[in-house]
Write a structure and sequence with these properties.
Blueprint (H helix, E strand, L loop, with lengths): L11 E6 L6 H12 L6 E7 L6 E5 L6 E7 L2 H7 L4 E6 L9 H8 E9 L4 H9 L2 E4 L2 E4 L15 E5 L3 H11 L4 E6 L14 E3 L9 H20 L8 E2 L3 E4 L3 H13 L8 E3 L1 H8 L7 E4 L3 E3 L1 H12 L3 E5 L5 E5 L2 E6 L2 E6 L1 E4 L17 E11 L9 E3 L3 E2 L6 E5 L12 H15 L12 E8 L6 E6 L15 E9 L5 H16 L8 H6 L4 H9 L10
Parallel strand pairs: 1-2, 1-5, 2-4, 5-6, 9-10, 9-21, 10-17, 13-23, 21-28
Antiparallel strand pairs: 3-4, 6-8, 7-8, 11-16, 12-16, 13-15, 14-15, 18-19, 19-20, 22-25, 22-26, 23-24, 24-25, 27-28
Length: about 550
Amino acid sequence: MNPTRFWQGRERYTVFDTRYGDGRRVAALIDAWRLDPERPARLHIVALADGLLPGFHRIPQEDAGVTLDLLNASFEAALAQLSARIDFVQLDGLRGPNTHFARGLARLAAVDARLAFDWLEQEQVAALMAQGFVLEGSGARFASRKPRPALPPVPARHAIVIGAGLAGCAAAERLCARGWEVTLVERHAEPAREASGNLAGIFMPLLSKDDNIPTRLTRAAYLYALRYWETLGGIGSKIEGAACGVMQLARDAGHAEAARAIAAAGHYPRAFAQWLEAEQAGALLGLPAPDGAWLFRQGGWARPGSVCDAMLDACGARLTRRFGVGSVTLARVGAEWEVRGEQGIIARAATVVLAGGAASTGFAQAARLPLSALRGQVTHLDAGTLPQLPFVLCREAYLTPAANGIACAGATYDLDTDPRLRASSQQENLERLRALVSSPDAGAGAPLRGRVGFRSVAPDRLPLVGALPDFEAAGSTERLRDLPRHPGLFSLLGYASRGLIWAPLCAELLASRLENEPLPLEANLADALDPARFVLRARRTGRIPTTFAPD
């Protein structure tokens, strides 16, 4: 049974292949899609694959109409965590008495979905038939008459995005790539003028012994960002920066011992994360590394503003820029939202994305989101006053290799709202820098130079991605999917210190939701980013958290 027989006339078509193997079958399917004049506008392929880090991996494709997700997970785990409506299933190599998969397939199957298989046990065929599949030719068809949960309608493909930092520029690009018209609204005259205006941001993964939700989310965001930036032209080319690697020094002997335990588990390939003992780390760095270090060879630094520029360039003619508009307000008028400035209405659309960091809580609809603005001062140092680094170096603080004669060190975590550079914050950065490079004279006599930005941070330090909850109408429901939302109002907020890597994946997640496409993350990870999670947490604790203090 060939999936190409059933996709004619479809707007989108989703194929689930249980064996990616060497990739030739998927490549052949994409080639057939390219050659078929009656092909669906969008082809989405989900395939189980070995040889990747655990989890879901969205792999950008040359064709804008094709999406490929590779899942390193067991068949049953993939079915449980996949958010999709599947039109065709290629079921290969399923042996043994397992019949539990049938329920999972039925949950995901679209009306009239087709299933091809090479061979199944009699009990497995019976399990599929019990879930509504009927044998047909060389496979089966999903013929269940049970009511299917209705997918929300895809909105008119016009959105207003408020905020032209990393979050907003990524949202604009991911929506424009799907054919949306986007009006990008920014109070400044240029993009990347707030927290995204720093000279350098670093990108690296997060490790933990128990591979917890923040670790898995950060890994997914980091790996997707590396692939996504290549589609924009690449770090060091279209994007200013360097994939030079990041070395993270152990804080102390106890931290090193925990790192050794993670390394001994053998979950990470060397290219992703390598633990180095003190002598080896010091030899590579050219500086002391008393307790050893992690080396993230694919990590590095990038100037966030150049990433924003690359994303906006990729939007093409579908993007309308409304910059320099000052402060704006948001009002629901009929079935649309109106963004208004001092001179009147700036834009109207049924869909609005708030992507302006902690300032977004100034809108009444987002006022109860528990976001805080944490002040971060970065110090700019003359490269001649510092050791020359082969990598980005970090521990409690970070130091980037010099670019254009300037190295960046920082950044502070302050609870005040002072936007000016101050000597006390510079001294804090210099003290941490000197401990980092084991030099009491590093940066001596440096003038007060740098930049202050404000990070948007949630209590759990995870982003807020999705439809904004209506706190006043929340009622007593205990399920995320049942919580009332403000119609057509979405958020991309709370990126804290990891905006470079959060921005691409979070924008892709939101765009996928708006288009009813398969999500690029496991369902439980996507739920962990839902802004409505704080409604449920507030109900359990009896209050809405409104402030955040760093550890």
